[in-house]
Amino acid sequence: MPDTQNEGTIKITVEFSGGLEMLFSNERKLSLYIPAIDADGSRSNIAFLVRHLCETFMNDPRKELFVLDDTVRPGILVLINDADWELEGEDKYVIEEGDNILFVSTLHGG
Amino acid sequence: MASETVIGSLRQQIATCESQLQDLKRQLAEVEHQSQQRRTNLALEQGVHTIDDPLAFDFSHGIHDDFKSEVLAALAQPEETTPPQRRWPLEANEYKRYGRQLIMPEIGLQGQLRLKNASVLIVGVGGLGCPAAAYLVGAGVGKVGLVDGDTVEESNLHRQILHSTAKVNMTKVESAMIALHSLNPNVELVPHQGRLTPETALSTLQPYDIVLDCTDTPASRYLISDSCVLLGKPLISASALRTDGQLMVLNNPPLPPGNTSGGPCYRCVFPKPPPAESVVTCGDGGILGPVVGTMGTLQALEAIKVLTKQPSASLNDPAPVDHPFLLIFSAYSSPMFRTIRLRTRKLKCAVCSAHATLTPEALNSGSMDYVQFCGTVGPIDALSSNERISAENYAKVRLNVNPFTGSEPSKDSHILVDVREKVQFDLCNLEGSVNVPFSAVTSLPVGARNGRANESNPEAVWVSELRQHADKPIFVVCRRGNDSQFTVKKMKELGLDNGGQRWIGDIRGGLLAWRDNVDREFPEY
């Protein structure tokens, strides 16, 4: 994982809310660089980011609390620059430099 | 025990008398108000007859009695059928009571009249429902319905602000009615005792203009949202856990299913329920009072906004449509509030789209099983019976002989591992126990199976320490007896049982069972 900007990487912010931060060492906010192009040679999208987060940043082995059937599990909203990812093309959305990606787990207490 | 029953019964009686007293006071106020009005009317009439009305003079002095009574009867007729025209749209006390919000352009006279003519159903009278109900009743909503099947518990009181110490064990609906009635006797309160079920949902929601979801399970959230779509009612949904809260205004505007201009419903945003094991309750995760209070207060605010919204002035200039949003509150983040744009109605939504499959008949018949749809976590039973020990038998281990190993009692005869999180362990723990927080157990990489550490993957400190005392049996305890089972399995995967030579097991029912069956003084939280 590069921690400085290289050729071919893009800088983004990833945030977790609603308890998901517990799966990521209690970090609510990560600033990170990801490759602009993924292993398949296509531009990195949200699907790539989710895999990347799982492999690189998730310490908790209970991956199913974040990913199920190769996508973000039910009950987690993905928000791209403060908008529901459904407005942006879901996991096909191609990540841009400076994007803010927020993962929110829905809460049920009341 | 006997005195506790007496105390409970006395409390109940006091509460009943208090509620009767409140009711009598309300009745007295109404009767006094009516008689005051009658006196005023009478005085007016008498004034008219005796002073300077020429007709009155004629009646008294110049008209034949037969004719007079006829004329009087004719005159009296309309007065009896139509109530006297009120001079002001609100009662005198209402101008005073609501004065501070009446003078705001967002409310004004028309807004207040809309509130007075409106009805709101609050489902769940807990951490969200209490503040929401208090503000809506305070604001003068005409009718407020309350749904809840629970009774007040002591552990509710730090956040459920309508309930109080004396009302522990009273139903939440009854307790809330007393508090709300004394807050504002002008509001009609409707009790709906019991949980909302698919069979009762539509008939319960039907009479109300708007619904507040103040419940705490995914199943009730889907049920309420589905019912609101079928009935065409806006829904204000909120939730809270630990230091975070979320708020959405759904099905707003509440247009019929298939109309894409309607607001999204809960299913549009969350088509599938979360896995049951990922759902954390306030009882397990914790909740800070002002956090859930903030969310309930915001629900009341959004309800007032929806109810007092002014209709568009003309067809050419329609009122601006509120974009669907999700408000995220995070008490320990900066900024604390954040608003996210949500999607519009989902084109294939099972409830609010043109392809909707849910019908009122299906809901009423009870064939929709929301609990099954959301899944349940059954009692965990991951261990065999010789890997478990009851709290009573463990107490014997501490005092007598271990029934499994036959070893003599001694403080050092075994290791007791408490897997609650550190903050809970610090509240209270059994003497001599070692704390290994469950999060440290679950976060051990799966690759650490059979446990041999290597250079790239050093062994966790707690695992090495347990390995050092290979001869001592390990007892694992947690709060309720679930996490302890998972931990026992994990320890065996790590090889801590030396291929079966060392006994590792858990205390059935956890510290709750310890408190219930061994040490009544062990704190319950």
CATH superfamily of chain A: Beta-grasp domain
**Parts with pLDDT < 50 across at least 5 consecutive residues of chain B:** none
Poorly predicted ranges of chain A:
none
> How many distinct domains of chain A?
1
Strand content of chain A: 25-35%
How do the strands and helices of this protein lay out in sequence?
The complex is a heterodimer of chains A (110) and B (525).
Chain A: E1 9-17, E2 29-35, H1 46-56, E3 67-68, E4 71-72, E5 76-80, E6 83-84, E7 100-105
Parallel strand pairs in A: 1-7
Antiparallel strand pairs in A: 1-2, 3-4, 5-6, 5-7
Chain B: H1 2-50, H2 54-61, H3 65-81, H4 92-97, H5 99-102, H6 108-116, E1 119-123, H7 129-139, E2 143-148, H8 172-183, E3 188-193, H9 198-205, E4 210-213, H10 218-231, E5 235-241, E6 244-250, H11 266-269, H12 282-285, H13 289-308, E7 325-330, E8 337-341, H14 360-365, H15 370-374, E9 388-389, H16 391-399, E10 415-418, H17 422-425, E11 434-435, H18 438-442, H19 461-468, E12 474-477, H20 483-493, E13 504-507, H21 510-517
Parallel strand pairs in B: 1-2, 1-4, 2-3, 4-5, 9-13, 10-11, 10-12, 12-13
Antiparallel strand pairs in B: 5-6, 6-7, 7-8
Pathway (chain B): tRNA modification; 5-methoxycarbonylmethyl-2-thiouridine-tRNA biosynthesis; Cofactor biosynthesis; molybdopterin biosynthesis
GO molecular function (chain B): ATP binding; metal ion binding; molybdopterin-synthase adenylyltransferase activity; molybdopterin-synthase sulfurtransferase activity; thiosulfate-cyanide sulfurtransferase activity; URM1 activating enzyme activity
Keywords (chain B): ATP-binding, Coiled coil, Cytoplasm, Metal-binding, Molybdenum cofactor biosynthesis, Multifunctional enzyme, Nucleotide-binding, Nucleotidyltransferase, Transferase, tRNA processing, Ubl conjugation pathway, Zinc
